[in-house]
Design a protein that fits this description.
The chain is an alpha+beta fold. The protein is built from three helices and six strands.
Amino acid sequence: MIPGDQASIVGGAIDYVKELEQLLQSLEAKKRTLLLQQQDHQKPTTHNDGYADSPPFAQFFAYPQYVWRHVARDYPFPESRPAVADIEVSLIETHASVRILSSKRPSQLLRIVAGLHTLRLTVLHLNVTAFDSMVLFSISVKVEEGCSLTTVDDIAAAVHHIISLIDAEMASIGQ
């Protein structure tokens, strides 16, 4: 690529947006920690925004395909299914954005990336934000040629299966 050409400019903009997303996730986790610490030191008060009552990272899941922690407040998620993680996938041509909120597990990131690779989904970018016993993964993947996953529901189901296997394995060894 030539500096200043359209591809370089778009690539730089995409990288900048990814950095902003990671910063926002980190700041949201810190804000939540501070709010919870303040609540512990004060008498319980009512928050007008209900922020402390909402699950962490709730604002990052607009239309999740699988729902674990989020309770629909403003609108129901009729197409969402009960799950071991909140999973939301958006797809534009051969590029997918995958968000996963789940309990922290040992070697979870490695297993997720290996599982995606097995499904012929190449990880292009990955953000990890942890909060207490939970972790939020924001993953950009490319759907490779020969991949049988062609819809957001297919990808979400495959990711849910990967997380379910990790969860079941951890439960069987008592973690």
